[in-house]
From TrEMBL:
UniProt protein name: SET domain-containing protein
Residues making up the signal peptide according to the UniProt record: none
SUPFAM superfamilies listed in its UniProt record: SET domain
Domain SET: 12-113
Length: 196
């Protein structure tokens, strides 16, 4: 689709693809990133009331931040390629990390329930993630671990299995899900924060 708006990118190697229509724009990569690579440390965040544009950053009712950058245009995917990792108590370590290799031209996507317990604005997901990631157990059960989840309302409405299949989930979401389920959820080993 033809971009209809231009602006100076807030981060090198990333570019917003503006598209006409409400919420149709997206963030694209303009370079390759390796799995585990940090795209950026998050700076310039401001506390805000929960909104479609905010990220949850903790367990409290006021723990929401505006990104104030092109990362606003990161769309949700049920098979995301980045994570917003805001789990450190040191806010200078909050960052965006690649969950798998990202190629030049790929859309940057994250799993919104990785930060959001209850979305301010639920939506029908159009990520189109298909039944591609079959595991041995899921083949036996005839289910798939990463297929599109449909309406995205937040982590509160997802099972432990659905959450733990998405690469990385922030600490307060794991805590809230553990309280809900009265069971412990292990962070996927491959996605754990490498020393940060
Ligand atoms: C923070 S904005 C992301 C950028 C947005 N696409 C835009 O153009 O402003 C979040 C909104 O984008 C839309 N969105 C994000 N991911 C989506 C997806 N996988 N399917 C459908 N809509 C999505 C939803 O309307 C959601 O409330």
């Amino acid at each position: 689709m033809t971009p209809h708006k231009r602006q100076t990118p807030s981060h090198s190697g990333l570019e917003v693809e503006f598209s006409p229509g409400e919420y149709q724009s997206s963030l694209k990569s303009r370079k390759a990133f390796k799995s585990g690579e940090i795209l950026t440390f998050l700076q310039g965040l401001t506390r805000s009331r929960k909104a479609y544009s905010t990220l949850q950053c903790g367990i409290g009712p006021d723990d929401h931040v505006e990104l104030n950058s092109d990362f606003l245009y990161v769309n949700h995917s049920c098979d995301p390629n980045i994570a917003f990792d805001l789990s450190s108590s040191d806010t200078s370590k909050w960052h965006v990390r690649a969950l798998r290799p990202i190629a030049d031209g790929d859309r940057i996507t994250c799993f919104y329930p990785s930060t959001e317990w209850e979305m301010d604005q639920p939506f029908q997901c159009e990520c189109g993630t298909k039944l591609l990631h079959w595991s041995f157990v899921s083949v036996l059960l005839m289910t798939c671990s990463k297929s599109c989840l449909g309406v995205i309302r937040g982590a509160r409405y997802l099972s432990r299995k659905q959450l733990s299949a998405r690469g990385f989930i922030n600490s307060w979401i794991l805590t809230l899900a553990e309280h809900r389920d009265k069971t412990k959820i292990d962070q996927p080993v491959a996605s754990q924060n490498k020393g940060l």
